[in-house]
Amino acid sequence: MINRPLKEGFRGVGRHWAMSISSAIAVTITLLIISIFVLLTWNVNHFTQNIESSLDIYASVDYNSESKEATLKKEIEAIDGVESVTLSPKSAEFDAYLNSFSDEKTKQAFEPFRSDNPMHDAFYVKAQDGSKIQSIADALSEMKNKGEGIYEVSYGGQSTISIVDAMANIRKIGLVLVIGLVLLAIFLIQNTIKLTISARSTEIEIMRNVGASNGFIRSPFLIEGIIIGVLGALIPIGLTIWGYYALYQNAGGVLISNMFHLVEPNPFVFYVSGLLLLMGILVGFIGSWLSVTRYLRWKR
Amino acid sequence: MIECSHVYMRYKSGTNALYDINIKVDQGEFIYIIGPTGSGKSTLIKLLDGEEVPTKGSVKAVGIDVGKLKRKQVPVYRRNIGVIFQDFRLLPEKTVFENISYALEVINMKKPQIEKRVQEVMKVVGLEDKGDSFPRQLSGGQQQRVTIARAIANRPKVLIADEPTGNLDPGKSAEIMELLDTINKKYGTTVVMVTHDASIVNRYRRRTVALEHGHIVADLSEGGYVRHDQ
């Protein structure tokens, strides 16, 4: 009795194979885009975490305000989104400056300035997360403009942040696209199942008349929808596994520069594949459910 | 067996189909429901087999208040009611045997039981040698016998026949009438037959309920066709 709905379901797919294939293709396209979207989002999140953890804001102290550093530190700590503030004295800054040169000769040439250190004391400000960096930097710049003891503000990776922003926008557009496509796929499956239902309307009528339960009538159609969903998921799953492995190997695990580390393919791609299969099944199920339920509802 | 009391039916579309219908049918009775198209005959059948719920009043059959059934309970209730249609509604790609056994399969009867029961009902309708034939190989009268076999396979207490002779010539109609009569007498099945075939109603006299514009205009226990002109 369990294989009856399975058998009937496969028969339904075969009976309207053209419609079934076109619905499956709709699922395929949808899932491909979902796959790209998930791979991208996951990696962007991965990048963002990497970048964010290495982003400090540098704010040097005005020579005249060196005596007020303790108060300044408190003020900076009070800015929204600040996680921690560390003070680096000008001598440490000087060392850091010297160390930025690799050859000993240049270092030697700068050594005489140590006694008349031109560097400023500096605060290194850590943000709670990447999105707060901009606003903290703005607040610090304002302190500088008002002459409240800050000499200069800078933070690395403005361009990186704009990439992250751009990716966030891509994510939003992708989400809208995916929702649209999921709805389209559900709609197409719904119509395919409707064809099967109308082809079998006499049979359904008879089943109803002799007292078959709704679940009994409904199950083959649900199976049919799920089969279409699974068929549609096969190509995206194959492409995801193959494509991501190829990308990872060709790129050597990084994208553009060392800053962008790709997520390791194993087990990542298999999670994504599982998700795609689940989406396919769900889309197929919902599509046929809507169709069958509407049909069974016009009668009690 | 069947009891309609003060049944009103108004469809969502606003059509009024039945007004204050009161009918009581005893176990083992055979009644005709007659009336022109649009008189409410089909609505009455739909109320009986649980497809529609009356707007007012109650429809009781086999001791169950049909209108009060939950959606999920309707299929099980329907197993008490056999239905025969004017257009047969047989599955063309299935044999006679399969068409009948199908009705038992969908209510989860066991295979050996199905086998036995199908043979029995094919004998009742006189088609024991036609099990392997397809519906298209049979005459209209034989096809209607198959639907009767299918309808009684599950031993329903009530058999509803919706214009069972509508597509048949008089000779075949007579055969079907005799078969329904046999089922009624032999098994005590209550038969409700909807028809507008005056010759049948006049020839096989039974209790006759006449509907017109949703009202019962006559309920004659001695039978005979009623022509009611307002």
Describe the structure.
The complex is a heterodimer of chains A (300) and B (230). Chain A is of the alpha+beta class and 300 residues long. Helix content of chain A is 71%, strand content 10%. Chain A has helices at 3-15, 17-53, 69-77, 90-99, 104-110, 130-145, 158-199, 201-209, 214-251, 265-297, and strands at 56-61, 82-88, 122-127, 150-155, 254-255, 260-261. In chain A, the strands form two sheets. Chain A has a four-stranded antiparallel beta sheet. In chain A, strands 5-6 form a two-stranded antiparallel ribbon. In chain A, β5 and β6 (260-261) form a beta hairpin. The two termini of chain A are 25 Å apart. In chain A, 29% of the residues are buried. Chain B is globular, with a radius of gyration of 18 Å. Chain B is 32% helix and 26% strand. The two termini of chain B are 32 Å apart. In chain B, α3 crosses α4 and α3 (96-105) packs parallel to α5 (140-152). The longest helix of chain B has 18 residues, at 170-187. The A-B interface holds A 1, 202-203, 205-214, 216, 299-300 and B 49-53, 71-72, 74-79, 82-83, 89, 91, 102-103, 106-108, 150-151, 154.
Structural class of chain B: alpha/beta
When the domains of chain A are counted, the total is: 2
Radius of gyration of chain B: 18 Å
Helix content, binned percent of chain B: 25-40%
Label the structural class of chain A: alpha+beta
Proportion of residues in extended strands of chain A: 5-15%
* Helix percentage range of chain A: over 70%
Shape of chain A: elongated
What's the main sheet of chain B like? 6 strands, mixed
CATH architecture of chain B: 3-Layer(aba) Sandwich
List low-pLDDT spans of chain A.
none
Alpha-carbon distance between the termini of chain A? 25 Å
Classify the fold: give the CATH topology of chain B: Rossmann fold
